[in-house]
Write a structure and sequence with these properties.
Structural class of chain A: alpha+beta
Largest sheet of chain A: 6 strands, mixed
Largest interface: A-B, 100 and 100 residues
CATH topology of the largest domain in chain A: Aminopeptidase
Strand order of the largest sheet of chain A: 1-2-6-3-7-17
Distance between the termini of chain A: 17 Å
CATH architecture of the largest domain in chain A: 3-Layer(aba) Sandwich
Shape of chain A: globular
CATH superfamily of the largest domain in chain A: Zn peptidases
Helix content of chain A: 25-40%
Radius of gyration of chain A: 23 Å
Strand content of chain A: 15-25%
CATH class of the largest domain in chain A: Alpha Beta
Number of domains of chain A: 2
Oligomer: homodimer
Chain lengths: 452, 452
């Protein structure tokens, strides 16, 4: 039990260190934060060295740097490669935050701040679990860390970096905490992730904004046209109408569906948390299936014309939208992006011009539940949380995970400790203090089971 | 001909004065410009006094002030009440201007700048025509000026101000230059204006932006819902689907339609000017009819979710739009606003909440072509432009014009000198130098014919 004692004795310092990490506004989507990305990477390098890494480096990429660290106990022993990301989502709408996004505070048993869960809070559990094993001389195998700064924008530089450093990254499994559990009393391990095809479209009508009186009714309004085009992409049954979109979707067997829907799900609590009267989605599928094993299409942003105070009577020259699709096995994001573009161009009327651009994408991913590392995670979670975790198909995407398999040939285990109340990507992100400490405990146990 | 000589001798000064007026950024939609509104009104008051007004005042309203001036030659003679507006539209998208919006320049025979046509350039022709008649001692009747600063935001204060000053404003006709002609070689006088009902809608889904992976496909996305709601407001034939919307629309007789469509219209030039491949509108009506005598529905602005650079994978908590409808006789904008709101609420799914707000509105207006002041305008235009002007039904709205008739009991004559290439309400607004001077000449002649 000396590991658990070490964690308990150092718990306050662990939290103080996490707060320092959370204070760095490392928003990868906004170029003004470039210097913060570098500062955050340096901070992590030093932290991993202090935690006991034999070496730790900030390695340049074409974008934000990757922090690489390692502890090679014995080359004959198995190796765990820890992946995490130190970049965070933007904070807008800023005015909806009840605390400063980059001034973390603890309240009601939770850590509040951008990145508290996604992914600084979760990646730092790995740093502290590693420190614990080194300090108590219980590290049972080799450990490598690969912490990137571009996950929230689709990891554009990490693919090449991995390919360039394939030998250095050799490992038996990639261990990732960047996902959620169904609940503290319903532990789960994510074994499926959706893929992503993220598009931007622009509809151009007249060559300038027009007076909506002089021209209204006689000239195509690009904003009206855009609403028609987007509206037609999903039909009244929640089916996506792009020809060929579902061709590669793997359907669950009746047995798989039954197992899938046997996971506990409280619809009233779900609706109450979101303050919605009704859920909505593809006909014939449960809410769990809709996010777990079915693809979706969402407008992430839409804009055009006059959006300030008051009124302006114009037909805007153009209107735009960011539209992303979540994909499931065996959909290919490049193919889906192409189908989207072809369809969007085909349905646009001759009265407008359209631009379609693929902003980023990633493949879906599945962890086989019979691989040894998954079994080790299962045992570790059960020991700390008191119940055998359920295999869970998350609706989220971590595009790089399928990239790791393709480039490095290594499978990942997604042992995440977030909860659905954490509001990741939203204002008022938070992470349970208990989740943070239980996560560290679970990770330490994972190494034991894995190296046995 | 001493009037025309006076105009010729003073033409450079007239233009310099107009430039001073155009330099004042009197944008009524943006509260930061409040001081500019007052400055602009003061400037006009002094200008009218110098032009020869017996009195000129800046009169307060609940909003921006009204400039009132008068020259009472003989109470027994008829009176012309000149209406114009000194406020201008916002300038965004700012980056599309090729010159500074508030630094007017003359190039290619045109005056470039915000307000060059709408309405500073046009109202100032009246000030200079008045000066010409006073200076040459040829003023044949009484003149009153009423220049407001809120036309572009729907004249919210002018209705009450008119009602409060009904006696002072007594006149035989209201003369307005705030409209366009079909062309320099196709002069026309606007005898119909559309009404306006301007709405703002908001669709609220979950209580915060959500992760589009974890929730996408299972929860209604307000931006997707908004596109569906807006798309359904106009059907594939260009008909507006709001129940009751067309109930009060006056249909033209076959004879009226024929006369209406006999006005010259060059479709290829129209499309080329706008750089569009096809026009689009209500089935069964010509382009001229679509803007002249048929109502329309346009998205003036739409926004929701992440609209900055890069990507953000969210389901936005809400999405909004500004939607305005142009109305024709005998549609009532209050009733149309109510029908819109009722319908919009009715079609919204239970998975979202909607807000609907009426921002401003105005009634349609028609000038009888047999009234003496219209005939005077017709003769004046014919004399200066060489052709009898066509009666023209403009798609635009000047909501206050129908208000004048209702409140003051006075009909308006809309003798405008703009052209469709003037890009009013758009970047790079301009006004022909020739239009400015011919306008002054025409106005002077109008008074002669009117007072005969």
């Amino acid at each position: 039990m000396k590991q658990q004692e070490y964690i308990a004795q150092n718990s306050d310092r662990f939290m103080e260190e996490l707060f320092d990490l959370l204070r760095i506004p490392s928003i990868s989507a906004q170029s003004a934060h470039k210097p913060d990305m570098v500062r955050c990477a340096e901070w992590l390098r030093e932290s991993l060295l202090k935690a006991g890494a034999q070496k730790a480096e900030v390695m340049p990429t074409e974008g934000n740097p990757v922090v690489y660290a390692e502890y090679i106990l014995d080359p004959a022993k198995p190796t765990v490669l820890v992946y995490g990301h130190y970049d965070v989502m933007p904070v807008d709408p800023r005015e909806e935050w009840r605390t400063e996004p980059f001034e973390p505070v603890i309240k009601d048993g939770r850590i509040w701040g951008r990145g508290a869960d996604d992914d600084k809070g979760q990646l730092y559990m790995h740093a502290k679990a590693f420190e614990t094993m080194v300090a108590t001389q219980t590290l049972p195998c080799n450990v490598k860390f690969m912490l990137e700064g571009e996950e929230e924008i689709g990891s554009p530089s990490l693919y090449k970096w991995c390919a360039d450093n394939k030998e250095m990254l050799a490992a038996d499994v990639i261990l990732v905490s960047d996902t959620s559990m169904l609940g503290m009393d319903t532990p789960s391990i994510t074994c499926g992730l959706r893929g992503l095809a993220y598009m931007q479209v622009e509809v151009q009508g007249p060559n300038k904004d027009l007076h909506s009186g002089l021209f209204g009714g006689a000239v195509a309004n690009p904003a009206n046209v855009l609403t028609k085009l987007i509206a037609s992409l999903v039909d009244e049954n929640g089916h996506i109408t792009i020809p060929g979109f579902y061709d590669d979707v793997r359907l669950l067997t009746p047995e798989e569906r039954e197992a899938f829907n046997s996971a506990p799900f409280d619809m009233e609590r779900y609706k109450k948390n979101l303050d919605i009267a009704e859920v909505e989605g593809e006909a014939g599928f449960s809410t769990m299936e809709r996010t777990g094993v079915r693809p979706s299409l969402d407008v992430n942003g839409i804009w055009g014309g006059y959006i300030e105070e008051g009124t302006k009577t114009i037909i805007p020259a153009k209107a735009s939208a960011k539209i992303s699709m979540r994909l499931v096995p065996n959909q290919d994001y490049v193919k889906i992006g192409e189908l989207f573009e072809k369809h969007f161009r085909a349905i646009a009327p001759a009265s407008v011009k359209v631009k379609v651009e693929a902003l980023h994408g990633g493949a879906p991913y599945v962890t086989p539940t019979d691989m040894p590392a998954y079994r080790a995670a299962e045992k570790a979670v059960e020991e700390v949380f008191g119940k055998k975790p359920l295999p869970f198909y998350s609706g989220g995407s971590i595009p790089i995970i399928s990239g790791f398999e393709r480039i490095l040939g290594i499978k990942s285990v997604l042992m995440g400790f977030g909860l659905d109340i954490d509001a990741i990507h939203s204002p008022n992100e938070s992470y349970g203090v208990e989740n943070f400490y239980k996560g560290i405990q679970t990770i330490v146990k994972f190494y034991d089971y894995f190296a046995k």
